[in-house]
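In this section we walk through a basic example: taking a raw amino acid sequence and producing a predicted 3D structure, encoded as discrete structure tokens. The instruction is simple. Fold the sequence below.
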Amino acid sequence: MKRLIGLALLVVLSLFGYRSFSGWKAYQAYERFAEAWVRGDEAEAGKYGDAAAVRHALEERSLRGTPSGSILEAFRGTRYSVESRSRTAGGEVEFEVQQTIHFDPPGTTTAIGGAMYTHFRHRAIVRETPEGWRVVSFEPTYLDMGEIRHRP
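The resulting token sequence is shown next.
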């Protein structure tokens, strides 16, 4: 009886572990795609997204076409905050993530952290393919931007 309970527990933990690992790999593909979107790097985005998602994100929804995109001169880092994650009936993973981009505008140079920030909300769908997890839908929405107050 103890062996049966132990075996059942092992199966449940294995399934939970696989699902967690699978979700982590899906998120990793999303984050690398989002980083490529920030930099406008089509080749890098192509490694993590399908052709339609890359074209839509980099040509139709480019960061440079947003209100803050025109004043981005030097990137100083990005942060991500997952607002929701869910699985579709087809096994895809749908993310809603807030991205914060730290940057310097023209005429300002900071060593670390950036002088300004901008926020975006991304809705992304990631699908497992034979080549690995791929972003199949990526919809960035501009939220706001502002100054970072550095203390002297």
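Looking at the output, two observations stand out. The longest strand covers residues 132-147. The beta strands are 74-87, 93-104, 116-129, 132-147. In the next section we compare this with other chains.
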